[in-house]
Design brief:
- The structure is a single chain.
- With about 350 residues, the chain is an alpha+beta fold.
- The chain has eleven helices and ten strands.
- It folds into two domains: about 110 residues, Phosphorylase Kinase, domain 1, CATH 3.30.200.20; about 220 residues, Aminoglycoside 3'-phosphotransferase, Chain: A, domain 2 (Alpha-Beta Complex), CATH 3.90.1200.
- A six-stranded antiparallel β-sheet has the order 1-2-3-4-6-5, covered by helices on one side. A two-stranded antiparallel ribbon has the order 7-10. The protein has a two-stranded antiparallel ribbon with strand order 8-9.
- A hairpin with a 4-residue loop joins strand 3 and strand 4.
- Helix 3 crosses helix 8, helix 4 runs parallel beside helix 9 and helix 9 packs antiparallel against helix 11.
- The longest helix has 25 residues.
- It is globular and about 60 Å long.
- It starts with 7 loop residues before the first strand and ends with a helix.
Length: about 350
């Protein structure tokens, strides 16, 4: 279902920008402006300059926004910092916080060429290449979680520690604010999760939405050349990132998952092998409470899905697939509770 978000389209009327004003600010002639089909939260554009170089512009959407939402300045900051550490992100050029230029704040970065896949089975490559891509993905995630965020100037990029507790509280509030029906498994998860947070807190830089569809793979080589969409990045717990990334192992094809696939035939490592590979690359021991992290990731997605359904009911949803995505709240919560129940 995510194929519709790949590639570009003519700029939507509501997201049009003043090209002349942008040219004056950037100090180069612009030949063409297209809008990426993705970037639903922050409109994203491909800018082609007169010298044929291509750039990507990402901006806050127009209209009234929540004070902390659509923080393109935070995206620019973390991408710029990681780029200096040779982490695979696009090169950044400029951040503009002056709304008078094109109407909202924006930043400009390099347009990285490569392949974007959304199906975790990656059906268009060979098993050997597929495995190499998976190895590159887990290596990049481990590199992110072992990056020295303090030396990168990101010590104030979030609140160190107590990440799971704060996130459970936040997403419980979000869920309650958009509740459209009673979901029994969510009612069980909401008190259970904060009471069973594993011991041993830790803080790393986390992406918040690390998945196959948010990276660019080299045009011909099986390796990650850029990680995109840093809107949810912060200081947090690395296992929240890892569990979210591993959720396709728990879902079937219907949800862009791998649970009904022959992983050996595809060349994709199994979940246990993959998690062990991450631990080796990140220099950590075995994970004692893996099911908790997975259940938290499902709970978070269930709360997000409920928020989408709340917008459907209110008539404010923009996504044409909003109703389908909103309906996932109950099965996601059910899956989380079933996972927890199976271990007790």
């Amino acid at each position: 279902m995510f194929e519709q978000f790949i590639g570009t389209k003519p700029v939507e009327e509501r997201h049009r920008i003043d090209v002349a004003a942008l040219e004056e600010f950037l100090n180069f002639k612009i030949l063409n402006v297209e809008q990426f089909k993705g970037g639903q939260s922050n409109p994203t554009y491909r800018i082609t300059a007169a010298d044929a170089r291509r750039y990507v512009l990402r901006r806050k959407p127009p209209g009234k926004l929540l004070p902390s939402a659509h923080a393109v300045d935070r995206e620019y900051r973390v991408i710029t910092a990681l780029g200096k550490a040779d982490f695979p992100v696009p090169r950044t050029f400029v951040l503009c916080e002056d709304d008078s230029v094109i109407g909202t704040a924006f930043y400009v970065m390099d347009c990285v060429h490569g392949r974007i896949f959304t199906d975790p089975a990656i059906p268009t490559v060979t098993p050997r290449e597929r495995r190499a891509i998976y190895e590159s993905l887990i290596d990049v995630l481990a590199r992110l979680h072992t990056a020295d965020w303090q030396s990168l100037g990101l010590a104030d990029f979030g609140r160190p520690g107590n990440y799971f507790a704060r996130q459970i509280h936040r997403w419980t509030q979000q869920y309650r604010a958009s509740e459209t029906e009673k979901i029994e498994s969510m009612e069980r998860l909401i008190p259970w999760l904060p009471e069973h947070i594993p011991a041993g807190d830790e803080t790393t830089l986390v992406h918040g939405d690390f998945r196959l569809g948010n990276v660019i793979i080299h045009p011909t080589e099986p390796r990650v050349v850029a990680v995109l969409d840093w809107e949810l990045s912060t200081l947090g717990h690395p296992l929240a990132d890892l569990a979210y990334f591993c959720l396709p192992y728990r879902f079937t094809r219907e949800w862009e998952g791998l649970a009904d696939k022959d992983l050996g035939e595809l060349g994709i490592p199994g979940e246990a092998e993959y998690v062990a590979d991450y631990c080796r690359r990140a220099g950590r021991g075995a994970i004692a409470d893996w099911e908790f992290s997975l259940a938290f990731a499902m709970f978070r997605l269930a709360a997000i899905a409920q928020g989408i359904m709340g917008r459907v009911v209110a008539g404010t949803a923009n996504d044409p697939n909003a109703q389908e995505r909103g309906r996932r709240a109950r099965p996601l919560a059910d899956s989380a509770w079933a996972l927890i129940s199976s271990r007790t």
